[in-house]
């Protein structure tokens, strides 16, 4: 492992010889985020580490000034920042430029994720996560807490699941989606073990499902970064029913390909949550109630039948749908 003894140094101030391979590859996807991308990159450069880091930025054919901003940083830090500038939007074509474009060129033992409208606020984020992963080879993924920041209302909410860090598997993820992308650091080798081409509705759900499947991960009870909620976000301010449909399609596909208990249960929950939303929007139709039959066919345990009652109970389903993606 390329590592220096002594105190961590900000990435912007580090000097490594040409033979020093990065221990961490930061992968950042950006699209039309000229108002945010500088904060994101500054958060990377302010990371204090004892090891080399590369910053990989993929711009997906932005129509604003995002490319110019990214390029200005690359010119200042040419040995640290590598860029991929698309002329045609890859997300609309393949839906997965991370997997198809960025992971194959990453050189680090670990990959850390952060999209171009989010940013890190803990300067020791990478140093702490890598230390934990190096000392605990049983973990393939490390995530943590974050702050939700609503760009429109300026409201903030810190989300940290427990007061102490804890180990988790897919079993725990059945009840709470723990893997917020901007906090994730995982072993690069694991992404070579599965093929995303089997999926047409690829999302972060697929990535984290496969990383954690049959493995263990760790949740750090620390506030690592800021997740922005804004009108141009991919998911954050879309109508919940849009995200509900996307979640339903993703879990249905995951189940059809993998046929395990986790994907079955999550597919069941997504069916019922989406149907409930249709009911309380006043848009329930006979075709919508096919979801009810679809869900019923997924039941394997008596206790799962209890979930069917909740379909007809009014709740804050925005929050429930949010937990599924």
- Summed up, the helix count is 11
> What is the count of distinct domains?
2
Order of helices and strands: EEHEEHEHEEHEEEHEHEHHHHH
Structural class, by secondary structure, is alpha/beta
Backbone CA Rg: 20 Å
Indicate the low-confidence ranges by residue numbers: 320-325
Mean pLDDT: 90
The level of helicity is 25-40%
> What distance lies between the first and last C-alpha atoms, to the nearest angstrom?
34 Å
CATH class of the largest domain: Alpha Beta
- What is the third-level CATH name, the topology of the largest domain? Spore Coat Polysaccharide Biosynthesis Protein SpsA, Chain A
Question: How many E strands?
Answer: 12
The biggest beta sheet reads: 10 strands, mixed
Observed structural traits:
325 residues; alpha/beta; Spore Coat Polysaccharide Biosynthesis Protein SpsA, Chain A; 2 domains; disordered C terminus
Kindly summarize this structure in a few lines:
The protein has 325 residues and is an alpha/beta fold.
